[in-house]
Amino acid sequence: MYWEYYVVDVLYWVGCTTSHIVPRISEKMISILTKVGVDFRVLGSRERCCGYPLIILGDYDGFKALAKDVVDVICNEGVSQVVTNCPGCYRCFNEFYPKALGVERLPFKVIHSTQFVYENIRLGRLRFKDSVKLRVTYHDPCDLGRHSGVYDIPRNILTSIPNIEFVEMERSREAARCCGAGGVLRILIPQLSTQVSITRIKDDVTPLNVDAVITACPTCVKNLRDGASISEIFYNLKHIDILDIIELIDELTL
Q1: Which of 42, 114, 191, 224 pairs as cysteine with 242 (C-beta 3.0–4.6 A)?
Q2: Contact by Cβ (8 Å): 82, 93
Q3: 89: closest CA among 220, 224, 217?
Q4: Which tens digits make up the pLDDT trace of 42-100?
Q5: Alpha carbons 169 and 96: distance in angstroms, whole number
Q6: CA proximity to 173, closest of 206, 144, 140
Q7: Please, which residues bridge with residue 13 across strands?
Q8: Could you report the per-residue pLDDT of 188-228, keeping only the tens digit for each?
């Protein structure tokens, strides 16, 4: 059904949200890929949506057709590994695509950007600069955490950074509160989506007195930034930066 030979090492799958809403994350990811010296490529205008909204909304036939098209496009690139920032894309490729296409696994490996970064830190390809002191917490994206089981790697990255003080939210890991944008809620009921993000900031983050919330999902970044801005203006809370872990790592590594 698919090809057998690979030429290029990595395809960076940017994802819709990263590309159109928070493009700075893609700039930082490309910087990291360049730093570690990996041979990579991007699809550019040929990259389509992974189809996650389709399956969430119940359009299984449309999702299956899209999944086949996306896999065929990636196959033609001759890559052995796909890296993505988006937990929704990550889950889609690893969980939904094989089921839709009737295969045990895809002919290329799909990893999340945190897995890529952690491996390159471990191998010494990413080295930290002397960093400023920063007190941070970590927000678990639903699709990366409770749906895909990736909890430790982002935390291992944060605790490996010099001068970073990491504190855990009470509602974290399996019990983490959603950012409010998951399951296309931001599209269908935007007011509720925003209110959930405000609650995450007011009730879960503010008591920790952190400088920044680090997450590993472009959609969480967008929604939590909205919640933090509204909380700062209307509830007179301190300013808190919301960063994707890729933004932080690129700034602090050689």
Answers
A1: 224
A2: yes
A3: 217
A4: 999 999 999 999 999 999 999 999 999 999 999 999 999 999 999 999 999 999 999 99
A5: 30
A6: 140
A7: 84
A8: 999 999 999 999 999 999 999 999 999 999 999 999 999 99
Structure tokens belonging to residue 91: 């889950």
| Dihedral over alpha carbons 87, 213, 38, 35 (to 10 degrees) | 170
Phi-psi region of 183 (alpha: psi -120 to 50; beta: other; left: phi over 0): left
Radius of gyration of the chain (CA): 18
**Residues comprising the chain, all counted:** 254
Residue where the block lists tokens 């493009």:
23
Q: In three state form, how does the secondary structure of the chain look?
A: CCCCCCCEEEEEECCHHHHHCCHHHHHHHHHHHHHCCCCEECCHHHCCCCCHHHHHHCCHHHHHHHHHHHHHHHHHHCEEEEEECCHHHHHHHHHHHHHHHCCCCCCCEEEEHHHHHHHHHHCCCCCECCCCCEEEEECCCCCCCCCCCCCHHHHHHHHCCCCEEECCCCCCHHHCCCCCCHHHHHHHCHHHHHHHHHHHHHHHHHHHCCCEEEECCHHHHHHHHHHHHHHHHHCCCCCCEEEEHHHHHHHHEC
One-letter amino acid at 125 equals R
Separation of alpha carbons 40 and 83, rounded Å: 10
